Amino acid sequence: MSQSNEPAVDIKREYSVEEPVPQEARHYGFWDMVFTWIGANANTSSWYTGGVVAAVGVLGGLAVIFVANPIAYAVMALIGFIGYKVGTTTMGLTRASFGIRGSILPSTLNAVQFVGWCSVNTFLAAISMSYLFQMAFGWPAFGEEGSAGNMILGVLICSVLQILMVAISGSHSIKIAERVATILLVVLTVWETVVILKNFDIATILAWTPPADVRMPFGAAMDVMVAFSFGWIPAICEFTRYTKNKSSAIAAPMIGANVALFWFAIVGLLGVVAMATETGTFDPNMSDPSTIMATLGLGWVAMIILIVATCTTNCINIYASSMSLNNLFPRVGAKKMILIVAVITVAGSLVPVAIGSLVDYFMVFLSYVGLIFAPLLPIIILDYYVVKKRDYDWSHAAKVGGKYWYSGGVNWRAIASWAIGVVFYFVAMNIDFIMNSLGAIYATVIVTAVVYLIVVKVAPEKIEH
C-alpha cells in the first residue's frame, strides 16, 4: 500500500486569517462550543451588566434581558455560520466585505474593543482580589480609602494568570479553561441564588424602584445589554472556523451564550437590588459581583471562583484581539500575536483604576462598542448572504487585484454605509422615542442594513485589476 506524500495536518497550530482552517484541524464539537459560550457569558461582567440595567427597574430589567439578547445572538449565529463555511476569523471576513485594505480599520477598532473588555473584566477580578487581601492581611478593599495600590496589585496578578492561561495552547487551552470555569461559576451562581431567595423577600425585590436620579430609560438599558452581547460577536468566527459541523457553529453558541447571560444577568440584577433593599442605597458603582458577594457574606471561596472565571473569560478577549491584529500582520504568526496582545492588556487593565469610577468607564466603553459594531455587523451579514450570495473565494483573501481588492484595496460602498450608520447612531441617541423603546444600537442596525442595500443597488461594484 502506497503512503500519501501530503504532509499531516497539525491540529495544534493556530491558523492565520489568510489560511482557511481545513476540516482535519477542526477540533470544536457541539458541546465544546456550548461550554465556550457559557464560559464567555458566565462571568463577572454579566453580573455587573445585570446590576447596571437594574436602573430601569426590576421588571424593566428582566424585559431588557429577555428581549435584547436573543436578537443579538441570532446576529452572532448568522456571522458564525460564515466563519464556519469560509474557515477564517470575524475580522478576516471584513477583507471580503470592506476590502483587503478596508478591513484595517474595523480590525484595529475590534482589537481595541477586546483589550477594553479585558480591562473591565480584570478590574472586576481585581476587586475580588482586594477582598481576599482584606481577609488575609487586613488591607483596605475596593471602595475604601487607600485601596488603589491593592487594586493595582490585583490587576497585575490577574494579568499574569491570564497570560499563562492563553499562552499555553491558544484555542485549545481556552476550550479546557472554559469548561472548568463554567462548572465553578454555576456552583457559585446557585449558591448566590439560594442566599438571595433565602434571605430576601422576593416580593420586596420585585416592588423595588430605582431612585429618580439614577433611573435609566428602557432604550438606554437596551443599549447597555445589546452592547454587552454585541461585544462578543466579533469573536465568534475565531471559534466557529474550528467547528466540525453547522450545528456547532450556529445552534451551540446561541444556546451557551443565551442560557449563561439570562441566568447571570438576572442574578446580578437581583443581587444589586437585594443589596439596595438591605442598605437603602443603589449605587451602580457597587454593582460588581465581589461587593455583592461580600455584602451577602459568601466569603473567600466565592472571591477565588470569581477571579478564576474572569481570567478564563479574558482568555477569549485576548485571543479575539490577537486574531484581529493578525488580520493586519498575518506574517507575525498567530501564537506570537497572542503573547503580544496579552502583555498589552496589562496596561489597558490599569485604566479603570486610574479613572476611579468603573460605571463611568463601563458606560463610555459600551457606547464605543455600539458606535462601532451596530453599523458594522449588518454589512458583514448582508455582504455574504445577499450581495455575494454565500460565495466567498478565500484564495483571493490576500490577492492584489483579486475579488476583494475593489478600488485600491477598499470597498468604498461598505465604508460609506458604515460611516452613515455611525452618524445615525449619534442622532438616534438624541431621539427620545428611540431611547425610550428600541435603543440606538438596534435602530442603527436596521438603518445601516437599509442604507447598504440601497448603496449596493445604486452604485456598481468597482474592482481594479
General description of the model:
The structure is a single chain. With 465 residues, the protein is an all-alpha fold. It has one domain: Hydantoin permease (Orthogonal Bundle), CATH 1.10.4160. 71% of the residues lie in helices and 0% in strands. The chain contains 19 helices and no strands. The protein has helices spanning 30-41, 44-52, 58-86, 90-98, 104-137, 148-169, 171-199, 202-207, 218-230, 237-240, 246-279, 289-296, 299-328, 334-349, 351-355, 358-387, 412-428, 432-435, 440-458. The protein is globular. The mean pLDDT is 87.
How many β strands by DSSP?
0
CATH homologous superfamily grouping = Hydantoin permease
The percentage of residues in β strands lies in: under 5%
Distance between the termini: 47 Å
Question: For the report, how would you describe the main beta sheet?
Answer: none
Quick overview:
The chain is 71% helix and 0% strand. By secondary structure, it is mostly helical.
Blueprint (SSEs and pairs):
Elements: H1 30-41, H2 44-52, H3 58-86, H4 90-98, H5 104-137, H6 148-169, H7 171-199, H8 202-207, H9 218-230, H10 237-240, H11 246-279, H12 289-296, H13 299-328, H14 334-349, H15 351-355, H16 358-387, H17 412-428, H18 432-435, H19 440-458
List keywords for this structure.
19 helices, 0% strand, 71% helix, globular, Hydantoin permease, mainly alpha, single chain, 465 residues
